[in-house]
Amino acid sequence: MTDDLRPLDATVDRPAPAIIKAYASLSPNELCDVLELYCVMRHEIRPLWPSPPRIAGPALTIRTGKHDNLMFHASIYLARPGDVIVVEAGDDEMAVAGGNVCAIAQNNGVAGLVVDGVIRDVVESREHGFPVFGRGVSPIPAKRVGDGGMNVQIRCGGVVVNPGDVVVADEEGIVVIPRARAEEVLEKAQAKVAADSKLSLDDWMRRHRSAVEAALKTKGYRL
To answer: Hey, how many other C-beta atoms are within 10 angstroms of the C-beta on 141?
Structure first.
């Protein structure tokens, strides 16, 4: 008897652990100082419980169909420790994830879940300390009926996300750094943070006032 079933491909080109650890020390705000708008998820994708810890990890990407969550359910068993599962949901009517599957993901080492859609059992995720980000909540569970996709290019919060991209998320926002730019962006962000740390508030104010005055002058104004 032959096995004609197709294995799911969860192979991801992940950045080195040291790079992910370094990203975890940088806030989305600090990263946005050196990133373009196309790397920043829109404000509709937000923390679904207050003040979650920051997460940083490589993206394991999932696409689901309307009212479906099959590929997400599969991903919790294929993700590696430290991964951030990022989902392009087929709708925002039925919940892609619930408390038990999030608990399994957390037990398997998944850093967090980002869904362009809705989630349920958020109270359970909060009690377990599992960070979840999405458009909102719904008590209605989706069904494991669709084909969907895993390890594919998706769009989440207006941002294109590929497997292995670095995702950094906290209560200030969510950013996605393309895998090919992970080292470059990290170096730029670290340099910017180091330079800013040397400035006192008075120093910053003088530089800021000078920049504001110069910008106003180009428009024919002065303070």
So the answer is: 16
User: How far apart are the C-alpha atoms of 175 and 172, rounded to whole Å?
Assistant: 10
For 65, residues 6+ apart whose C-beta sits below 8 A from its C-beta are 90, 145, 146, 147, 148
Q: Mind spelling out the 3-state secondary structure of 59-93?
A: EEEEECCCCECHHHHHHHHHCCCCCEEEEECCCCC
Strands 112-116, 132-134: pairing kind: parallel
Distance CA 214, CA 46 (A): 36
Q: Residue ranges of the domains in the chain?
A: 17-197
From CA 193, how far away is CA 190, in angstroms rounded? Answer: 5
pTM, entire model: 0.94
Query: What is the Cα–Cα distance from 76 to 108, expressed in whole angstroms?
Result: 7
- 167: tokens are 């995702």
Return the bridge partners of 86, or none: 61, 114
Task: Please name the fold of domain 17-197.
Answer: Glucose Oxidase; domain 1 (3.50.30)
Q: How many CA atoms lie within 13 A of 30 on its CB side?
A: 23
Ranges of H-type helices in 68-172: 70-78, 99-107, 122-128
| Average pLDDT for runs of 10 along the chain of length 223 | 77 96 98 97 97 98 96 97 98 96 98 98 97 97 91 97 98 97 98 94 94 95 93
